[in-house]
Amino acid sequence: MALAIDNLRVGRIYRFVNQGEVRIIEIMSRISGDNFSVKDLDTLEWYTLEELLRWGIGKDFDLEELR
Length: 67
Description:
Helix content is 6%, strand content 46%. By secondary structure, it is mostly beta strands.
């Protein structure tokens, strides 16, 4: 079951699926409202959650906590 974006917590690790892309991300900090700074644990790149959702939420959208 997908979590709502407002349920994300700083320091936690999540599996993020959207538009066919699967990413394992760690929430690093809250920027504002529903926007977070996230670290992709596969590539070690930093993004904002807004960048990951820029093209919309697909039918396969899923967000689940791993640890």
